[in-house]
Q: What sequence folds into this?
Protein backbone atom coordinates (compact mmCIF):
# COMPACT_ATOMS: atom_id res chain seq x y z
CA UNK A 1 0.00 0.00 0.00
CA UNK A 2 1.36 3.43 -0.95
CA UNK A 3 2.00 5.81 1.93
CA UNK A 4 0.32 9.18 1.74
CA UNK A 5 2.80 12.05 1.17
CA UNK A 6 0.80 14.41 3.37
CA UNK A 7 2.44 13.42 6.71
CA UNK A 8 5.89 13.94 5.18
CA UNK A 9 4.93 17.37 3.90
CA UNK A 10 3.68 18.31 7.35
CA UNK A 11 6.60 16.88 9.30
CA UNK A 12 9.34 18.55 7.25
CA UNK A 13 8.54 22.15 8.36
CA UNK A 14 8.24 20.89 11.92
CA UNK A 15 11.70 19.33 11.64
CA UNK A 16 13.15 22.55 10.27
CA UNK A 17 11.46 24.56 13.01
CA UNK A 18 12.81 22.14 15.61
CA UNK A 19 16.35 22.45 14.20
CA UNK A 20 16.15 26.26 14.24
CA UNK A 21 14.78 26.28 17.78
CA UNK A 22 17.61 23.99 18.88
CA UNK A 23 20.18 26.24 17.20
CA UNK A 24 18.76 29.35 18.87
CA UNK A 25 18.68 27.58 22.23
CA UNK A 26 22.34 26.59 21.96
CA UNK A 27 23.36 30.09 20.89
CA UNK A 28 21.32 31.57 23.74
CA UNK A 29 23.20 29.32 26.17
CA UNK A 30 26.50 30.42 24.62
CA UNK A 31 25.63 34.11 25.08
CA UNK A 32 24.55 33.47 28.68
CA UNK A 33 27.78 31.65 29.54
CA UNK A 34 29.97 34.28 27.85
CA UNK A 35 28.15 37.04 29.72
CA UNK A 36 28.48 35.27 33.08
CA UNK A 37 32.18 34.67 32.47
CA UNK A 38 32.87 38.38 33.05
CA UNK A 39 31.84 38.54 36.73
CA UNK A 40 33.33 35.05 37.23
CA UNK A 41 36.64 36.35 35.89
CA UNK A 42 36.51 39.37 38.19
CA UNK A 43 35.95 37.13 41.22
CA UNK A 44 38.84 34.86 40.18
CA UNK A 45 41.14 37.89 39.82
CA UNK A 46 40.98 38.30 43.60
CA UNK A 47 43.01 35.07 43.89
CA UNK A 48 44.91 34.79 40.57
CA UNK A 49 47.07 37.46 38.89
CA UNK A 50 45.59 38.60 35.54
CA UNK A 51 48.20 37.16 33.16
CA UNK A 52 48.22 33.81 34.95
CA UNK A 53 44.43 33.75 34.83
CA UNK A 54 44.50 34.38 31.06
CA UNK A 55 47.13 31.65 30.61
CA UNK A 56 45.13 29.16 32.70
CA UNK A 57 41.97 30.03 30.78
CA UNK A 58 43.41 29.29 27.36
CA UNK A 59 45.65 26.46 28.52
CA UNK A 60 42.74 24.52 30.03
CA UNK A 61 40.46 25.36 27.10
CA UNK A 62 43.11 24.19 24.62
CA UNK A 63 43.45 20.83 26.39
CA UNK A 64 39.66 20.33 26.27
CA UNK A 65 39.46 21.23 22.59
CA UNK A 66 42.44 19.03 21.66
CA UNK A 67 40.61 16.11 23.29
CA UNK A 68 37.29 17.01 21.63
CA UNK A 69 38.78 17.37 18.14
CA UNK A 70 40.81 14.17 18.57
CA UNK A 71 37.70 12.19 19.55
CA UNK A 72 36.04 13.40 16.34
CA UNK A 73 39.05 12.26 14.32
CA UNK A 74 39.95 15.76 13.10
CA UNK A 75 43.12 16.47 15.06
CA UNK A 76 45.89 17.54 12.69
CA UNK A 77 48.62 20.16 12.53
CA UNK A 78 47.30 23.34 10.87
CA UNK A 79 47.91 23.53 7.09
CA UNK A 80 50.42 26.15 6.00
CA UNK A 81 47.66 28.21 4.37
CA UNK A 82 45.97 28.60 7.79
CA UNK A 83 49.06 29.66 9.75
CA UNK A 84 48.28 33.40 9.33
CA UNK A 85 44.77 33.04 10.79
CA UNK A 86 46.09 30.84 13.62
CA UNK A 87 48.62 33.55 14.48
CA UNK A 88 46.09 36.37 14.09
CA UNK A 89 43.43 34.81 16.32
CA UNK A 90 45.89 33.31 18.79
CA UNK A 91 48.07 36.38 19.31
CA UNK A 92 45.68 39.30 18.74
CA UNK A 93 42.19 38.10 19.65
CA UNK A 94 43.07 35.64 22.41
CA UNK A 95 46.40 36.70 23.88
CA UNK A 96 46.25 40.50 23.47
CA UNK A 97 42.51 41.07 23.91
CA UNK A 98 42.22 38.74 26.92
CA UNK A 99 45.56 39.60 28.54
CA UNK A 100 44.98 43.36 28.36
CA UNK A 101 41.34 42.89 29.36
CA UNK A 102 42.18 40.97 32.52
CA UNK A 103 44.81 43.52 33.55
CA UNK A 104 42.25 46.28 32.95
CA UNK A 105 39.63 44.53 35.08
CA UNK A 106 41.87 44.97 38.13
CA UNK A 107 41.49 48.77 37.67
CA UNK A 108 38.05 49.24 36.01
CA UNK A 109 34.78 47.84 37.34
CA UNK A 110 33.39 44.91 35.38
CA UNK A 111 30.33 46.67 33.94
CA UNK A 112 32.45 49.31 32.25
CA UNK A 113 35.08 46.75 31.24
CA UNK A 114 32.62 44.53 29.38
CA UNK A 115 31.03 47.51 27.62
CA UNK A 116 34.35 48.95 26.41
CA UNK A 117 35.61 45.51 25.36
CA UNK A 118 32.58 44.94 23.13
CA UNK A 119 32.96 48.15 21.15
CA UNK A 120 34.64 45.96 18.50
CA UNK A 121 32.08 46.58 15.68
CA UNK A 122 32.72 50.32 15.92
CA UNK A 123 36.47 49.98 15.49
CA UNK A 124 35.89 47.53 12.63
CA UNK A 125 34.53 50.42 10.55
CA UNK A 126 37.76 52.40 11.07
CA UNK A 127 40.00 49.33 10.61
CA UNK A 128 38.30 48.43 7.32
CA UNK A 129 38.72 52.02 6.14
CA UNK A 130 42.43 52.17 7.02
CA UNK A 131 43.51 48.63 6.07
CA UNK A 132 41.38 47.87 3.01
CA UNK A 133 40.34 51.35 1.83
CA UNK A 134 36.70 50.45 2.36
CA UNK A 135 35.12 53.89 2.56
CA UNK A 136 32.41 53.82 5.24
CA UNK A 137 28.81 54.26 4.18
CA UNK A 138 26.45 56.78 5.74
CA UNK A 139 25.05 54.06 8.00
CA UNK A 140 28.54 53.10 9.15
CA UNK A 141 29.48 56.71 9.84
CA UNK A 142 26.27 57.12 11.82
CA UNK A 143 27.04 53.92 13.77
CA UNK A 144 30.55 55.16 14.49
CA UNK A 145 29.38 58.61 15.64
CA UNK A 146 26.64 57.21 17.91
CA UNK A 147 28.85 54.47 19.38
CA UNK A 148 31.84 56.73 20.01
CA UNK A 149 29.57 59.26 21.70
CA UNK A 150 28.60 56.47 24.10
CA UNK A 151 32.25 55.55 24.68
CA UNK A 152 32.95 59.22 25.39
CA UNK A 153 30.23 59.30 28.05
CA UNK A 154 31.41 56.07 29.70
CA UNK A 155 35.04 57.25 29.78
CA UNK A 156 34.26 60.87 30.69
CA UNK A 157 35.65 62.41 33.91
CA UNK A 158 32.07 62.69 35.20
CA UNK A 159 31.65 58.89 34.97
CA UNK A 160 35.16 57.51 35.67
CA UNK A 161 37.59 58.77 38.29
CA UNK A 162 40.62 59.54 36.14
CA UNK A 163 42.69 60.36 39.23
CA UNK A 164 42.37 56.78 40.55
CA UNK A 165 45.54 54.70 39.91
CA UNK A 166 45.26 52.62 36.76
CA UNK A 167 41.87 53.92 35.59
CA UNK A 168 43.09 55.58 32.38
CA UNK A 169 45.43 52.66 31.65
CA UNK A 170 42.60 50.15 32.20
CA UNK A 171 40.23 51.96 29.83
CA UNK A 172 43.01 52.29 27.22
CA UNK A 173 43.86 48.57 27.49
CA UNK A 174 40.21 47.62 26.92
CA UNK A 175 39.91 49.82 23.85
CA UNK A 176 43.24 48.56 22.45
CA UNK A 177 42.02 45.00 22.93
CA UNK A 178 38.75 45.80 21.14
CA UNK A 179 40.69 47.32 18.23
CA UNK A 180 42.87 44.20 17.98
CA UNK A 181 39.75 42.03 17.90
CA UNK A 182 38.25 44.16 15.12
CA UNK A 183 41.40 43.63 13.02
CA UNK A 184 41.06 39.87 13.52
CA UNK A 185 37.41 40.00 12.40
CA UNK A 186 38.47 41.66 9.14
CA UNK A 187 41.14 38.98 8.68
CA UNK A 188 38.59 36.20 9.30
CA UNK A 189 36.27 37.62 6.62
CA UNK A 190 39.06 37.62 4.00
CA UNK A 191 40.85 34.39 4.94
CA UNK A 192 40.40 31.30 2.76
CA UNK A 193 40.08 28.45 5.22
CA UNK A 194 41.80 25.14 4.52
CA UNK A 195 40.91 23.50 7.84
CA UNK A 196 37.72 24.18 9.78
CA UNK A 197 37.69 26.89 12.50
CA UNK A 198 37.00 24.20 15.10
CA UNK A 199 40.04 22.16 14.03
CA UNK A 200 42.27 25.24 14.30
CA UNK A 201 40.86 26.49 17.62
CA UNK A 202 42.99 24.35 19.99
CA UNK A 203 46.17 25.44 18.19
CA UNK A 204 45.13 29.10 18.45
CA UNK A 205 44.46 28.71 22.17
CA UNK A 206 47.79 26.93 22.67
CA UNK A 207 49.55 29.74 20.81
CA UNK A 208 47.90 32.23 23.17
CA UNK A 209 48.59 30.23 26.35
CA UNK A 210 52.34 29.76 25.83
CA UNK A 211 53.40 33.45 25.56
CA UNK A 212 50.85 34.41 28.23
CA UNK A 213 52.53 31.92 30.59
CA UNK A 214 55.97 33.36 29.77
CA UNK A 215 54.79 36.94 30.37
CA UNK A 216 53.07 35.86 33.59
CA UNK A 217 56.19 34.11 34.87
CA UNK A 218 58.34 37.15 34.09
CA UNK A 219 55.95 39.82 35.41
CA UNK A 220 53.88 38.07 38.10
CA UNK A 221 56.21 35.40 39.45
CA UNK A 222 55.67 31.71 40.01
CA UNK A 223 52.12 30.31 40.03
CA UNK A 224 53.08 28.36 43.17
CA UNK A 225 51.97 31.39 45.20
CA UNK A 226 48.36 30.98 44.01
CA UNK A 227 46.15 29.50 46.75
CA UNK A 228 44.00 26.96 44.90
CA UNK A 229 40.84 25.97 46.78
CA UNK A 230 37.57 24.37 45.69
CA UNK A 231 35.86 27.70 44.97
CA UNK A 232 38.73 28.90 42.80
CA UNK A 233 38.89 25.58 40.93
CA UNK A 234 35.15 25.85 40.20
CA UNK A 235 35.68 29.35 38.82
CA UNK A 236 38.61 28.22 36.67
CA UNK A 237 36.59 25.27 35.36
CA UNK A 238 33.80 27.62 34.34
CA UNK A 239 36.06 30.30 32.81
CA UNK A 240 38.23 27.89 30.78
CA UNK A 241 36.63 24.57 29.76
CA UNK A 242 33.01 25.81 29.90
CA UNK A 243 32.89 29.50 28.92
CA UNK A 244 35.82 29.25 26.49
CA UNK A 245 36.13 25.79 24.91
CA UNK A 246 32.49 24.67 25.15
CA UNK A 247 31.20 28.04 23.92
CA UNK A 248 33.65 27.95 21.00
CA UNK A 249 32.25 24.55 19.99
CA UNK A 250 28.70 25.94 20.17
CA UNK A 251 29.71 28.97 18.09
CA UNK A 252 31.45 26.83 15.46
CA UNK A 253 28.66 24.25 15.24
CA UNK A 254 25.58 26.48 15.42
CA UNK A 255 26.75 30.01 14.54
CA UNK A 256 27.11 29.09 10.85
CA UNK A 257 23.44 28.05 10.71
CA UNK A 258 22.13 31.60 11.06
CA UNK A 259 22.94 34.78 9.16
CA UNK A 260 25.88 36.99 10.09
CA UNK A 261 23.45 39.79 10.97
CA UNK A 262 21.52 37.48 13.31
CA UNK A 263 24.77 36.30 14.90
CA UNK A 264 25.86 39.92 15.41
CA UNK A 265 22.60 40.66 17.17
CA UNK A 266 23.00 37.56 19.31
CA UNK A 267 26.44 38.65 20.51
CA UNK A 268 24.98 42.00 21.62
CA UNK A 269 23.51 39.99 24.49
CA UNK A 270 26.95 39.17 25.89
CA UNK A 271 27.79 42.67 27.23
CA UNK A 272 24.19 43.12 28.37
CA UNK A 273 24.28 39.90 30.42
CA UNK A 274 27.78 40.73 31.63
CA UNK A 275 26.67 44.15 32.88
CA UNK A 276 23.49 42.87 34.53
CA UNK A 277 25.33 39.95 36.15
CA UNK A 278 28.03 42.32 37.42
CA UNK A 279 25.39 44.50 39.00
CA UNK A 280 23.73 41.52 40.71
CA UNK A 281 26.83 39.53 41.69
CA UNK A 282 29.45 42.24 42.21
CA UNK A 283 27.35 45.20 43.25
CA UNK A 284 28.41 47.38 40.29
CA UNK A 285 26.34 50.55 40.01
CA UNK A 286 24.48 51.85 36.98
CA UNK A 287 24.54 55.64 36.99
CA UNK A 288 22.32 57.70 34.64
CA UNK A 289 25.38 58.80 32.63
CA UNK A 290 26.60 55.19 32.27
CA UNK A 291 23.10 54.09 31.23
CA UNK A 292 23.05 56.79 28.54
CA UNK A 293 26.49 55.74 27.30
CA UNK A 294 25.39 52.10 27.35
CA UNK A 295 22.36 52.88 25.16
CA UNK A 296 24.47 54.84 22.68
CA UNK A 297 27.13 52.11 22.40
CA UNK A 298 24.46 49.44 21.88
CA UNK A 299 22.74 51.62 19.27
CA UNK A 300 26.07 52.11 17.49
CA UNK A 301 26.81 48.36 17.45
CA UNK A 302 23.32 47.60 16.15
CA UNK A 303 23.65 50.23 13.42
CA UNK A 304 27.05 48.78 12.46
CA UNK A 305 25.52 45.30 12.14
CA UNK A 306 22.65 46.72 10.04
CA UNK A 307 25.12 48.56 7.80
CA UNK A 308 27.09 45.35 7.24
CA UNK A 309 23.88 43.47 6.38
CA UNK A 310 22.86 46.20 3.89
CA UNK A 311 26.31 46.08 2.26
CA UNK A 312 26.10 42.29 1.81
CA UNK A 313 22.57 42.61 0.39
A:
Amino acid sequence: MRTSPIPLAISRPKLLLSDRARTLAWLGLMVLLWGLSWPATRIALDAVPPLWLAAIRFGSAALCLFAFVALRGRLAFPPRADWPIVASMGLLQMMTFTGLGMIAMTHVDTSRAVLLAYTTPLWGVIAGWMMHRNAPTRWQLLALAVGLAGVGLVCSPWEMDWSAPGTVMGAAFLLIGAICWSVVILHIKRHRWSASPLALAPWQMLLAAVPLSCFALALEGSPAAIAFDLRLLELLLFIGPVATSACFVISAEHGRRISTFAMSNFTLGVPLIGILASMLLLGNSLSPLFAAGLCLVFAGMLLAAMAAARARA
Summary: Residues 16 and 22 are 10 Å apart (CA to CA). The chain has one domain: 22-312. The two ends are 48 Å apart (CA to CA).
